[in-house]
Amino acid sequence: MKGLPFRLEIIETDTSWIVTCSSECGEAIIRVPPPYSESELQKALADVAISLTKSYSPSITRGDASTERPVLEFGKRLAHTLLRDEISIQFDRCRNLAKSQEKSLRILLRTNGPRVDRIPWEYLADPSRDDYLALRVPVVRYLRVMNPPPPLPLTPPLRVLGISARPSDLPQLDEKREREKIERAFRQNNSANVDVHWLAGDRWHDLAKELRSGSWHVLHCVCHGGFDEERNSGYIQLSGDDGAARRLYASDFDRLITDSPNLRLIVLNACESATSRSDDIFTSTAANLVRAGVPAVVAMQYEITDTAAFTFSSAFYERIAEGSPVDKAMTLAREEVKMTLGSLEWATPVLILASDQTRIFSLRNSETTPIPRPPAKRLAEVGPCSHVALGPSNLLATACVDGVVRIFDGTDGRPVCQCMPVQREEPVRVAWSPWRRHVASRHRDGTVIVWDLQTRAPVLVIGAGGQDDSLAFSADGRWLALTAGDHVHVYDVRGARVRDLPVWSRKEVCRPGQPRTLGPIVFAPGDRHVVVACGDGLVRQLNVQGKVVTRWPHPLPVSSLAVTADRLATGCLDGRVRLWSWEGRPLQHTDPGRHAAHLALSADLPLLAMADDEGNVVIRDLVGWNATTATRLTSPPAGLAFLDSRGGLVTGTRAGVVERWSLPEWTAAEGSAS
Question: What are the pLDDT digits (tens) for 631-661?
């Protein structure tokens, strides 16, 4: 349901306020005397702050009318000043129109002046009821910055990054309880569409490293905050290298999020993070982040207790997980604090927007959105084959059913050479060395042959045995890893087996129906570890001693892997493709579908290609996690890979058709964005 906006702007002059409104019902402007003089306003704000503190004090009876009376009177006086004359008429019309159209009314408030900027407008009273407007309709601050970011096209999951600061020289916050509340809210509501990750560290460097990956949509900060009068700037407090508090000023925060194009919402659970004490509203931490390019920031205009903070946060994210717009989630979270705690802290959180646009995400359903089919060029027809692999210089190798390993150019299909084993069973998989001279083939009887493409003769023959078909070269070409039963064997360039790594420890027991079988294998960045998919659903990273250093859990076995320097992609039999960090943290996942038999990650562009057994190929960009192109192969796939230098995508089918697909639409969009 879309909201009906009612825009209010208050401009402060020396002797009066100029109040304007605009809505679908029309516009109006009035000039009114301020409700308070400077000295009266200071006293009124002090009384509000005292009442706020009393409202959560354990020595005051919850809901004591005498505690709340000064605040409600303050809100009524503001309403009497603003919502009068022509503006009152427009407000009533807009409210009635929203009701008749079954829409929610939304008040968008903009202030201009050192005194009006300090007023807690969330306590504005409802002129027709003895209550607060912000508990009934969204009351939002908006700054109207130039070129506000548009809604982000988003295919779930929503990615939330959390940081909780624990400086040794500041009072400890109840951040653990807030974490649990937020995570519980997401688990109970569309947890498959939300990924939440809390940073282990709390230093500026820890936060900067994650934000600059560019993949986060929401940032949640649990920390202390304040306003520095001398620097005229708001700040939050993280930890320094020595563990003591280190201030992160508004301008510092601005630079930190520059490389986070997908960030659309920041929640600052930090005291006074919405505070500005000068003529420049952008001196507050929250407003500065909005000006820096974040379309929505939730911040605190007063100190807030831990209990109120995690009550608000959990209710807010619960609504976000349900799909509520950010302003509606804000209103419902305020109501939760009011009804649960009975304190006036429901008005401490403030929602600040870059414009009057409250829609910060544009959900895209890849199943219903038409996806363009890229143009294709047929490179070769090599006859039935089991596997196609891309190597250096865009060379392609095919493991053909007639027993031949065929090599040709992946850009134009030009044949390069053929390798014909003598008295060996057909090849079932091929793997490239980093040098274009060597390619390895694994055969149905388990034998592995490393070929010299200049002489077209074997330089190495390894009798690995068994029915396994997985093999992988290290990036430097020094090691060749093979799966053999429930072990990983690593060979050097002379064919000597230098490592025999058992994948399961003696203490590990597979669940019924999950045998100790191994799937695809790759080397991790740096070539010191191997990554192998296992029949129990775990993808394990093993060091040179066979110790598991990282685990990526899946509900079912993984049938395909793809890697880059900073990501691991897995195709699971549950029909999801998942994207992971090398530390084991989930980054993205697709909706359930047919399992991806083949995956490929581009080295030049943030793209992931996936192909299922029916020949459906989809390419996703890793920035917005949106499907960019799709096609259907003529038969089940035997492999796919991205060519170097943005040359497109190469696919091979089991029928032996090899094609090159160009990606003009994604490349054009990427180029214009840069």
Answer: 888 888 999 999 987 778 999 999 999 999 8
